[in-house]
Design a protein that fits this description.
It is a single chain. With 88 residues, the protein is an alpha+beta fold. The protein has one domain (3-76). 19% of the residues lie in helices and 25% in strands. The protein is built from two helices and four strands, in the order E-H-E-E-H-E. It has helices at 17-24, 56-64; strands at residues 3-9, 38-41, 46-52, 73-76. It has a four-stranded antiparallel β-sheet with strand order 2-3-1-4, with helices on one face. A hairpin with a 4-residue loop joins strand 2 (38-41) and strand 3. The radius of gyration is 15 Å and the shape is globular. 15% of the residues are buried.
Length: 88
């Protein structure tokens, strides 16, 4: 699954995966359950999940319906791979 990173605000304790699905109209298989819900900045109520990139339009619509916050949004999640070893 190609993923996108979703960062969002949530009042109170960390939301469950099921709650994230309800908040952003996601099917359970559109969330990376192994990644889980990461507390990006728990003091500010910011959390991050990985979503199926194909769900991005629905998530964008759900974000647009919420009060705007500059830290909320969808972000690219490119693969991170090591560079080749330098030539000796």
């Amino acid at each position: 699954m190609e993923t996108a990173m979703l960062q969002f605000r949530h009042a109170g304790s960390a939301p469950s995966m099921d709650e994230v699905c309800r908040l952003f109209s996601l099917a359970p298989d559109e969330l990376d359950r192994q990644f889980g819900v990461i507390a990006t900045d728990p003091a500010d109520g910011l959390y991050t999940v990985l979503i199926d990139a194909r769900a991005a339009p629905r998530v964008s619509a759900a974000l647009a319906a919420r009060p705007a916050h500059p830290a909320e949004g969808l972000f690219a999640n490119p693969p991170i791979e090591p560079f080749d070893l330098p030539d000796d």
